[in-house]
Amino acid sequence: MGHFEAVQRQFIAHLRDPEGAPAAGMPAERAKVYESLIYGNIDSVLRSGFPVLRGLDDDARWHQRVRAFLREHRCTPAEFHRVAGCFVDFVHAHPRAVPDDWPFLAELAHYEWVEMALAIAPDQVDWQAAADDADANETEWVMSPLAAVLAYCAPVHSIGPGVLPEIAPQPETFLAVRRNRHDGVQFMQLNALTYQLLAWMRGNDEATITEAVEAFCEALPALAEPLRAQAPALIAHLRDSDVLVPRHAVRKLPVFPEARPEQRLPAMRDGLLG
């Protein structure tokens, strides 16, 4: 390693951890300018991406959290909007980076990131085509690529100052988060069976809601009759909520090049949630 590269590495280490790594070969005041610039940009991205978490932390805890992220995590994306995804990975990998942290931290961070990820995702649904074919046969309705089906052990959608829930031993909160035809990101609570239906669709690329219902009827014959009876109303609700869209209205674009929202939560990635 050459001298310049060694100095460069040491300076980067200082930007990540000003208290633990000295700024070699640069006046302290000048190094402070760069350090403040990096910290301020990361702090701004995280504040805007995780407003609920920021509202729970006091200033000292939040500063500690941002500093730990800068110090411990190697975030490579050049785009600032992708830093939020790196932060989600960080809180999963370093659950004790901040002492006595919120037990629901990882799930809350993931939930807040999903909202942002859907808001900035490329428009992969042709909403005009979807509106023109609103009466399409049920065999043609698939899950919107701008929707995520999620399961959490904490009721993440209700967390806020004064609302600090316990974590259940198994997932009890099931949500569909989607970007609708008006570009608004909304969530809806699901029961366990609807969650399983949508999760099955997400895991079986381009599967229709009719195929999902039939697959569950075959796997759970005792529930087949009531499920088939309730299916029309459920399908209509999911269509009206923009969770389901006509197959031909889906554009083939890479919406989530890094990971789908469902894949960034370790429990889902490991197949623990169905």
Structure characterization notes:
The protein is mainly alpha-helical. It has two domains: 1-101, no CATH class; 122-274, Outer Surface Protein A, domain 3 (Alpha-Beta Complex), CATH 3.90.930.50. Mean pLDDT is 83; it is low at 266-274. The protein is elongated, with a radius of gyration of 22 Å. The strands form two sheets. The chain has a three-stranded antiparallel sheet with strand order 2-3-4, with helices on both faces. It has helices at 3-16, 28-49, 51-56, 59-72, 83-93, 105-120, 127-132, 192-203, 209-219, 224-240, 266-269; strands at 141-143, 147-152, 173-179, 185-190, 244-246. Helix content is 49%, strand content 9%. The protein has eleven helices and five strands, in the order αααααααββββαααβα.
Biggest sheet overview: 3 strands, antiparallel
Number of strands: 5
For this structure, the CATH topology of the largest domain is Outer Surface Protein A, domain 3
Query: What's the level 1 CATH class of the largest domain?
Result: Alpha Beta
Assign a percent range to the helix content. 40-55%
Mean pLDDT reading? 83
Oligomeric status of the shown chains? single chain
Total number of helices:
11
Structural class: mainly alpha
Low-confidence stretches: 266-274
The helix/strand order is HHHHHHHEEEEHHHEH
CATH architecture of the largest domain: Alpha-Beta Complex
Cα end-to-end separation:
49 Å
Strand content: 5-15%
Radius of gyration: 22 Å
Domains (count): 2
